[in-house]
Amino acid sequence: MTVPETLPETVRGSTVVAADYFPSYSVAGLLAVVGVLFVAVAFGAGRLLRPVVPTPEKLLTYECGVDPVGEGWAHTQVRYYVYAFLYVIFAVDSIFLFPWATVFAAPGYGAATLVEMFVFLGFLAVGLLYAYKKGVLAWT
């Protein structure tokens, strides 16, 4: 079976297509190898050049300048998790609302984008309702 002469050179032979395709990835691969080597050399130089003089004080667990006393267990209040949850809700809200406004203005995306955004805002409302039910929003 012969390939017609009217086809471009890159379509006629798969080796030509591969020859045009892989050099673009070789630059990225070379950059990745150079980056890994740079980090390896930096860590190796740090290991070779640093002084190694272990003392009992250096081997202690350091915690804010205070010697560790007692157990490592500490009780954490649940309200901090709720604060983190609220932060995530409003951070995600701000991240998605700005691109939504841009896409909403594009022709052909109005109705679908509007429905998707109301679903998204519904999820945010459920999270806000959860926080309200937990009493997090009550200032004391």
Keywords:
5 helices; about 140 residues; about 70% helix; mainly alpha
What does this structure look like?
With 140 residues, this protein is an all-alpha fold. The protein has helices spanning 9-12, 14-49, 56-59, 78-105, 110-134. Helix 4 packs antiparallel against helix 5 (110-134). The radius of gyration is 29 Å and the shape is flat. The mean pLDDT is 76.
Structural class: mainly alpha
Question: Mean of residue pLDDT?
Answer: 76
The biggest sheet amounts to: none
Q: CA-to-CA gap between the ends?
A: 83 Å
Q: How large is the share of residues in beta strands?
A: under 5%
- Care to count the β-strands? 0
Order of SSEs: HHHHH
Please give the share of residues in helix.
55-70%
Q: Based on the structure, what is the oligomeric state of the protein chains?
A: single chain
CA-atom Rg in angstroms: 29 Å
Instruction: Note the total helix count.
Output: 5
Low-confidence stretches: none
Give the overall shape, derived from the CA principal axes.
flat
In short:
With 140 residues, this protein is mainly α. 69% of the residues lie in helices and 0% in strands. It has helices spanning 9-12, 14-49, 56-59, 78-105, 110-134.
